[in-house]
Every structure is written in structure tokens, then in C-alpha cells.
UniProtKB/TrEMBL annotation:
GO biological process, one term: cilium assembly
The protein, known as: Bardet-Biedl syndrome 9
Listed transmembrane segments: none
Superkingdom assignment: Eukaryota
Organism field: Calidris pygmaea (Spoon-billed sandpiper)
Residue stretches making up the PTHB1 C-terminal helix bundle domain: 703-778
GO cellular component: BBSome; membrane
Keywords of the record: Coiled coil
Domain PTHB1 N-terminal: 1-362
Annotated PTHB1 hairpin domain residues: 599-701
Domain PTHB1 GAE intervals: 407-485
Coiled-coil parts of chain: 370-397
């Protein structure tokens, strides 16, 4: 065996009668495994995309079934494959596939299996661009000096450079004096594109100059524009006197940045400014090349393949090695495969893919096996405990831990976890065995977003019901304990690029210097960021638009902006909560937030109108469904009468009418269901905007905690819409009550009585007028407060059981007159626990009251 023959480490033949070319081979860690091992990506002109991860048992062995990770036919010829950071919002690697008229970007992911051949890999299309011109080749890089992402430039067959900023098309520019396309590459050091034109010249074009040049779509005189713009656009030109096969830009730590050009008979190395560093005359016809890092400082090694099935290794212009290949390579790469660095990957035009190495075969000597040692069980047990601890810590991140500690004996305890839709939990009901005093139970609950709209609240509650036995009642007295929790903001949104333009903007003023987002939003800021002061953040909601948060560098202000009004709410609330928590840790008690801008009532009214329109549609669908159902049953009765008749009679098209009516009922039911889903989304958006409105009014008027509670009870009386009672009539009644009591201007308004029945209004004009008047009264000095006398003189009837209303306990045996508040569905807030009206006892300030001798009435 010759020393100068490439050692076959792994090889395979791709397909049958498939063709490959220079851009069809790529090596990279395309599945983001993080192991440092490259995968081999191959695309063919027949449209087949294959990904390999070679694992030969011994060098020279053929392909194993598990070596082929993925094989898929894309139905269009694949001109070039590249791997880079092509998807916004993530720095993971993605695969770009160039077709003749299309550019597709895929995400490659794998799922580990339980057996040797069980690993599964799949590709997911992230986005695609349909090209207006036939593509030739492409290059990518951080155009314009962007960080953390790669942009793509495609050269068309007619000489146009089409630039794509990931998911969007940026611009297109024609190259001057173009005749035939040549190789194209990008130099990040000079931020320029380098190509070889049909004039046999190496030309460099600055990205910034191309970006500000005349757009390709606006050119009027094609040839004259090309010739005249060439003098303006081109950066430098070098005449090499021959057509180029490939071009590459390399920049290693120990070597200066260089531009390598492989010609038909010469090999050139250029500086960044186009000057020749060196050139090498070749005595053969080259087919491909690849520069790679050299072990000698100041030099660069280059692999050059030729049509004589040879692969030459050069160190600058010195030939260091020559090796024989079994095929003529059209593309060559250097990869790290299975902990083996520097594997040479070559591809021929007929699909011969080979991984090889240079030199002699490695030694087959194996060290003798040492004597087996005794097993140290204590060491194994300690290692097992450490691994179990790591597993336990890892499982904690999958959900929310809900620990409960019982100080008394609890019989038949059960736990209910409640979150507001569209949020949901994996399990909302838990039943435990009887618990003894000072014992605890811990459950893990995972919350997730179920639906295509953002939630209006991230708060949830846990309710534990149990029985405590006594001497007189061994079966136990039913009791309820409740606690609240808050879900993280990362559940519904993720970090994103900030947006400069937005339709809605809010400014929150504070009395303290602005705080860096590195401190209060550490979970949304990149820890590797070089900036000590981060004053702008972007939030991308999973089902909505983008929201941007900015902190002023010169004033004590924060701005929140978004294209949707309802998206401002969660970010505004999170900002206020995190600022309060930050200054509370610093023992700062005088921190306060204020709002001095205009209340966005018009945008808020648009959300009200949208929700009310869907409610009207729901009533129309209900009426139409009732009519069609009556018609359907009437036709059924007619048909049944005809079938029971002993004398056969013609159906007179009753069967056709029945089928038509049935289809109408199904269509109306589908439309009603779709309208119901749209109404739920509209109500969720309305609740978010209402929360934002309440917060802005409270900051604007500097309301106290009690006044904010009244405001929330007024604008947020319902947790969800019902056919019997809607949000519009409930809020209208509550605001009308406030305008006639604490916000009234005269005694005449207080004398007006409220209707005892709430019904759906014809339109929202009265509601919008009352909301505007409510804000106007507050601006003129009105205050939200309830006194005992006014409450007694002006009773308000609230038919909804989930609304907030005061209750009064009539004095009975051993009871004193008191007042409390009922919050949501009749639960009574008490010391440490709460009960419902159906329970046998109420607790009022620690005193037990017997419901058999007392009456509870609401007004």
C-alpha cells in the first residue's frame, strides 16, 4: 500500500445516477448537539438532502444504517447548502438550502431513542423565499457588522445580488459589466462581497455602498446603469487573466486575513485591499480547494484537488504532501468526526462521498487488560446519591412546586390548582391521604399556554379543602385554605430584538434613577452582553406582536411600546412589580410610579366595540340555530307521518329539504363555534386592556389600595362572559352606580334609582359615554370611597354571583353586627382560611357564627 494514498476512514455511494457539484457539500454541527462533532450535509441536483454522522467500527469500513441521520427529497434541484445563524431570535445553527427559484431555511433536530437504531431526526421549515430570478450561488455572513446572526446574499444568473435579512428581503443590486456569474464570497473583516467577473477580474464591493446604491427595481437604462454604477460601487479590482473556479476568505488567529482564488492554472492569495501576497502556478487542472489552519505561525495550509484524482497539500506556496484519491473531487471540506480532528471529506460529481486521512495507518497495538479491582460499594452509593440529587434538581425546572405544611390533622385533603384561561396546568386536582400534624405534601404542576392569545393575568391560586376532627364531630369540620402564586413572564413571551416603531406608547414616571435591565430583567438579558447598562429590551409574545421596553438615560422614565394596546399590560405590570421589589430590597420606602400621559380611551373603545360585535353575532347565530332546529324537527315529523302511512305517498322533496336543513344546522354550528372562540380571544384582550386602564388611572390619580380595589371591582366584575350576563352591562351598571354616589355632582343624581335588572344593551354608546364621564369626574377631583351611610341609603342590586358586593350579617344569638367583602363566587375572606355560603359555619374576625340562627343578605 502506497504511503501517498489517502487512507479510507469511511465512505459511501449516494443514490443512483445523481449529480453533485461544488456547493452540494457542507460540514457543521447542524443539529446543535454541542458535542463539537460535525455532521456531513449533502444535497444533489435530483433534490435529495442527506445528513450523515459517520461512526465506523474500524477505519475503512462502509456505511452503517445509523450513520445516515436523515434523507429527504425536496423535489427541486439543490444548488448549494450552507449552515449558519439564519433564524432571528436564536443563535442556533440552521440549514439553508438554495434551489433554482427558492431559498429554504430548515431547523434540524433529533429525538433520542431507547435502542441503538432508535434515534430520529427531522427537518422543520422555518421560512422560505421565492426568488424572482434564477439563482446561481450564495454566500452568508454578518453583513453590516451585525452580531449573533447571519444574512444571506444570492447571486442570480443575470448578475443580481439579492440580500435577505433572515425572514425578510432587504434589497437587490446588479453588478456592473456582468456577463456570466462567478464564485462569490463575503469578507467580514472588510464587510465586502468578493467575486470574479467574466472579465477575469477579482472585484470587491462594500456592503454599505451596495445598500445605498440605486435599487435594482428602479433602474431604467440597464446597460448604462451597470457601466456607470461600476465606478461608484466597486471597491477594488485585480485582473488575474483567467476564469476562477472558487474563491474563499480565511482569517485565522496566527495568520492575517487573506483572499484565496483558485484559477484554471494558478492559485492566488490576496490581501484585503486586493494586492497579491503570493501566487502558485499549477501544472495540473484543479477541481476544488479549501484553505485550513496551519500549525506553523504566519502560514496557511491549502488542500487542492485536481482531475488526476490527486489531493495536494500546500503550506503557502510549498507543496508539503500529495495523496491519491479514488475519485475526482468536486468539493472538499475539513471536519471533526467522532473525536477525530482534521478528517478530509471529499465528494465526486457522481456521489462518491469519502472521509479520509493522510499518512500511515495507526498502530493496532492494544494495551493488555489490567487486573480487575474490587468494587467499592460505598463509592458507588455516594455517586448514585449525587446523580439522584442532580436528577431531582433538574425535574424542579419542569413545573411549579406547591408545598403544603399542615399544623393540624387533616382528613381527606384535596388540592385544586386554578389558573385563568388561556393558561392551563397539566393537572388541576390532587387527592391525598390523611395527614398528621407537622407533615407536608409537595406536588409538581406544569403550566402552559393553551390557545392562540396571550393571557390577561399570570396569577393563579391553590385551594386546599380538608376536614379537621373535633370531639363533638369526629368526622371533621370542612375547611378551606387558599394561597396565590405568580407564573413567570417567560412562560408567555421570549426575548426579541427591540422595535423602534410602534402604534401605542406609554411612559411611566418614577421618583428614582432608572435601573439597568440587567438587574431587574436578568432573565431576559443575555448574560454574555458586554454592556453594563442595558436600557432597551424586546419581548416577543408567543401569540401576539412584539413589545419594546425602554429606560431613559437622562430622566427617571420608562417607555413601553407595542403595536397592540393589550400587549402593553403584562410588560407594564411586570416592570412596576420588579421595580417595587428592587427598591424594597434596598430598603427604599418612598419609591412611587406615576403616569401623566393621556388615557388611551379611543383604542380601548375599539376593543369594547369588537367584543360587543361578537356578542351580537353570537345572539344572531343562536336565533338562526333555533329557527333551523325547529324547521328540522318539523320536517322529521312530516317524514315520520309519511313513513307510517299504510298507503305509500310521494315525499314531495321532503328528503332534499331535510338534507339541506341539516347542512345549514351544521354550518351554523361551526360558525357559532368559531365566533365563540373569537369572542373568547376578544374578551381576553379586553381584560388585558382593562387591567392596563385601571393601572394607568391609579397611577394618574395616585389612588390608595382601597380605591384601586373599588376600581378593579368596577371594571373587572366578570372572570368570563356568560350568555346571561355580559361584561358591558355589568360594567355599565357599576360605573353608573359610582357616578350617582361617590362621584355625583349634585343630590339630584343621587336621587336617581338604578334598574334592578341587567340586560344586553343595543350598542356601546352609553357605556363609552359613562367611562369618559368617569375619567372626567376623577380628573376634576372626584374620589372613590364608600361610607356606611351612603351604602345604606343607596342599595345596589348585583345579580351576578361572581361580582363584588358588601354583605351584612343580621344580629342573632351571640352574634354582633359586622360587614365584610365577598370576593369571587361567594368566598368569604377570613383569618387564615375561607369558606363558602354552603358551609355549616362562617368565621368573622375569629368568632364562629352559627348559620342556623343568623341571616345573610346582600345589597
Amino acid at each position: 500500500m502506497s504511503l501517498f494514498k489517502a487512507r479510507d476512514w469511511w465512505s459511501t455511494i449516494l443514490g443512483e445516477k445523481e449529480e453533485f457539484d461544488q456547493g452540494c457539500l457542507c460540514v457543521a454541527d447542524v443539529d446543535n448537539s454541542g458535542s463539537g462533532q460535525d455532521k456531513i450535509i449533502v444535497g444533489s441536483y435530483m433534490g435529495y438532502l442527506r445528513i450523515f454522522n459517520p461512526h465506523p467500527v474500524k477505519p475503512g469500513e462502509g456505511i452503517q444504517p445509523e450513520d445516515l441521520l436523515l434523507e429527504v427529497q425536496l423535489r427541486e434541484p439543490i444548488l448549494q447548502v450552507e449552515v449558519g445563524k439564519f433564524v432571528s431570535g436564536t443563535e442556533g445553527l440552521h440549514l439553508a438550502v438554495l434551489h433554482c427559484r427558492k431559498l429554504c431555511v430548515y431547523a434540524v433536530s433529533g429525538t433520542l431513542g431507547n435502542v441503538e437504531h432508535g434515534n430520529q431526526y427531522q427537518i422543520k421549515l422555518m421560512y422560505e423565499h421565492n426568488l424572482q430570478r434564477t439563482a446561481c450561488n450564495m454566500t452568508y455572513g454578518p453583513f453590516g457588522g451585525v452580531k449573533g446572526r447571519d444574512l444571506i446574499c444570492i447571486q442570480s444568473m443575470d448578475g443580481m445580488l439579492m440580500l435577505f435579512e433572515q425572514e425578510s428581503y432587504a434589497f437587490g443590486r446588479f453588478l456592473p459589466g456582468f456577463l456570466l456569474p462567478g464564485p462569490l464570497t463575503y469578507s467580514s473583516r472588510t464587510d465586502s462581497f468578493i467575486t470574479v467577473s467574466s472579465c477575469r477580474q477579482v472585484e470587491s464591493y462594500k456592503y454599505q455602498v451596495l445598500a445605498f446604491a440605486t435599487d435594482a427595481d428602479e433602474r431604467q437604462e440597464a446597460e448604462q446603469q451597470k457601466l456607470s454604477s461600476g465606478k461608484r460601487v466597486v471597491d477594488w479590482v485585480l485582473n488575474i487573466g483567467e476564469q476562477a473556479l472558487d474563491i474563499c476568505v480565511v482569517s485565522f488567529n496566527q495568520a492575517v486575513s487573506s483572499v484565496f482564488v483558485l484559477g484554471e492554472r494558478n492559485f492566488f492569495c490576496l490581501k484585503d485591499n486586493g494586492q497579491i501576497r503570493f501566487m502558485k502556478k499549477l501544472d495540473y487542472s484543479p477541481s476544488c480547494f479549501i484553505p485550513y489552519c496551519s500549525v506553523k505561525e504566519g502560514t496557511i495550509n491549502t488542500l487542492v484537488g485536481n482531475h488526476s484524482k490527486m489531493l495536494n497539500v500546500y503550506q503557502d506556496i510549498t507543496l508539503k504532501w500529495a495523496t491519491q484519491l479514488p475519485h475526482v473531487p468536486v468539493s472538499v471540506k475539513v471536519a471533526n468526526l467522532q473525536d477525530l480532528k482534521g478528517v478530509i471529506v471529499t465528494l465526486s460529481d457522481n456521489g462518491h462521498l469519502q472521509c479520509s486521512y493522510l499518512g500511515t495507518d495507526p498502530s493496532l497495538f492494544q494495551a493488555p487488560r489490567v487486573e480487575s479491582r474490587e468494587i467499592n460499594y460505598e463509592e458507588f452509593e455516594a455517586e448514585m446519591k449525587e446523580l439522584q440529587k442532580i436528577i431531582k434538581e433538574a425535574t424542579k425546572t419542569q413545573g411549579t412546586l406547591l408545598p403544603f405544611l399542615y399544623r393540624v390533622t387533616a382528613q381527606k385533603p384535596s388540592l385544586a390548582v386554578c389558573v385563568q384561561a388561556p393558561l392551563a396546568v397539566t393537572c388541576d386536582q390532587f387527592v391525598f391521604d390523611d395527614l398528621e400534624p407537622d407533615s407536608s405534601e409537595t406536588v409538581v404542576v406544569s403550566a402552559f399556554l393553551k390557545g392562540n392569545c396571550s393571557p390577561s393575568e399570570l396569577e393563579g391560586s391553590c385551594v386546599v379543602s380538608y376536614n379537621t376532627p373535633t370531639e363533638l364531630n369526629p368526622e371533621g369540620i370542612p375547611k378551606v385554605a387558599q394561597c396565590n402564586f405568580r407564573l413567570p413572564l417567560r412562560l408567555v413571551c421570549s426575548p426579541a430584538q427591540p422595535s423602534k416603531a410602534a402604534n401605542h406608547k406609554l411612559t411611566i414616571d418614577t421618583n428614582k434613577p432608572p435601573v439597568s435591565f440587567l438587574t431587574i430583567f436578568s432573565d431576559f438579558v443575555d448574560p454574555s452582553s458586554e454592556d453594563d447598562q442595558v436600557n432597551v429590551l424586546g419581548f416577543q409574545f408567543s401569540t401576539s406582536s412584539k413589545t419594546t421596553l425602554l429606560a431613559s438615560k437622562t430622566s427617571q422614565r420608562y417607555r413601553i411600546q407595542s403595536d397592540q394596546l393589550e400587549d402593553l399590560w403584562l410588560i407594564t405590570k411586570e416592570l412596576i412589580l420588579r421595580l417595587e421589589e428592587h427598591f424594597k430590597k434596598q430598603n427604599c420606602k418612598d419609591f412611587a410610579c406615576t403616569f401623566s400621559g393621556a388615557i388611551p380611551l379611543q383604542e380601548y373603545f375599539e376593543l369594547i366595540d369588537r367584543h360587543f360585535e361578537l356578542r351580537l353575532n353570537a345572539e344572531k347565530f343562536q336565533e338562526l340555530l333555533s329557527e333551523r332546529a325547529v324547521q328540522f324537527r318539523a320536517i322529521e315529523r312530516r317524514l315520520l307521518t309519511r313513513f307510517k302511512d299504510k298507503t305509500p305517498a310521494p315525499l314531495q322533496h321532503l328528503d332534499t329539504l331535510l338534507e339541506g336543513t341539516f347542512r345549514e344546522v351544521i354550518a351554523l354550528a361551526d360558525a357559532a363555534e368559531e365566533n365563540q372562540a373569537n369572542m373568547f380571544q376578544a374578551f381576553t384582550k379586553l381584560r388585558s386592556a382593562t387591567h392596563l386602564l385601571v393601572t394607568l388611572i391609579s397611577l394618574w390619580q395616585k389612588l390608595s389600595t382601597d380605591q384601586v380595589a373599588i376600581l378593579e371591582a368596577t371594571f373587572l366584575p366578570l372572570a368570563e362572559d356568560t350568555p346571561e350576563l355580559g361584561w358591558e352591562e355589568a360594567v355599565d351598571a357599576a360605573i353608573s352606580y359610582l357616578l350617582r354616589t361617590c362621584l355625583s355632582k349634585s343630590s339630584k343624581e343621587q336621587a336617581l334609582s338604578l334598574s334592578s335588572q341587567l340586560s344586553m344593551p343595543k350598542d356601546t354608546s352609553r357605556l363609552k359615554k359613562n367611562i369618559t364621564l368617569f375619567c372626567d369626574r376623577l380628573a376634576k377631583g372626584g374620589r372613590l370611597s364608600f361610607s356606611t351611610d351612603s351604602a345604606a341609603q343607596q342599595p345596589a342590586v348585583m345579580p351576578d354571583s361572581c361580582s363584588t358586593s358588601p354583605i351584612k350579617i343580621i344580629q342573632g344569638r351571640g352574634a354582633s353586627q359586622a360587614k365584610q367583602k365577598v370576593f369571587g363566587c361567594g368566598l368569604l375572606a377570613t383569618d387564615g382560611w375561607c369558606v363558602g355560603p354552603g358551609s355549616p359555619f362562617y368565621m368573622m374576625n375569629g368568632e364562629k357564627l352559627s348559620t342556623s340562627k343568623e341571616l345573610v343578605e346582600t345589597w
